[in-house]
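For the sake of transparency, this paper describes our internal protein records without simplification. Because each token names a local backbone shape, the row as a whole describes the fold. One such record is reproduced below, unchanged from the form in which we store it:
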Amino acid sequence: MYLILVLARNIIQGNELLKQKRWEIGWMPNLLLGSDLDDMTLGILGLGKIGAAVARRAKAFNLKIIYHNRQTRNYKIETETQARYIDLNSLLRQSGFLSIHADLKSDSSHLMDSSRFRMMKKTSYIINTSRGQIINERHLIQGLNRKMIAGAALDVFENEPIPRHNSLLTVKNVVTLPHIGSATYQTRSKMSQIEVQNLLNVFEPKEPIFLVNQEVKNQYI
């Protein structure tokens, strides 16, 4: 939600304007004009636990919520937030903000490429806090330079740490963060507790928490 607000209201640009001491005229009616969130459309790609949490918060800002999952619909969140399920192409065409929360698999690698950026509105923004490889960064840079979309906010990248020569660091309408989506004392403490518990589970043996490779599940039963 922070990245959505940053993009909508030009917060980073406003901070830089003051830091660089370039605010010389004072209040102006057209200074750093952004967008209201009220009645804008938020598209969520991947409505799992994180995508659902975003949907609940977005509802408080009166955003219209649409989403796409590759497998199952999230009827619970549809009821809670009036989110509407649509196909991927429609999601891209209708979203004012597209927030990516999909997991990385063979069919989602470089899912967002030039062909899909062309489907989006020229006034739309893309936010990625899931996995960097879901976006083809070279195509994203081209799309931004050609004004296929209005901007992007990225917390994850194809290669981390991001190379210094990466053009995403110099494109004006891109907000970049160093993979800090989970960077709170509370969340990192919980992550550490899970890691310790999983080490203990190995010696029980018990099934690990948040087991990814389900094919080995039977060895813990």
In short: The chain has a mean pLDDT of 94. The helical segments are 2-9, 11-19, 49-60, 75-81, 88-94, 114-117, 137-145, 185-203. DSSP finds eight helices and seven strands in the chain. The longest helix spans residues 185-203.
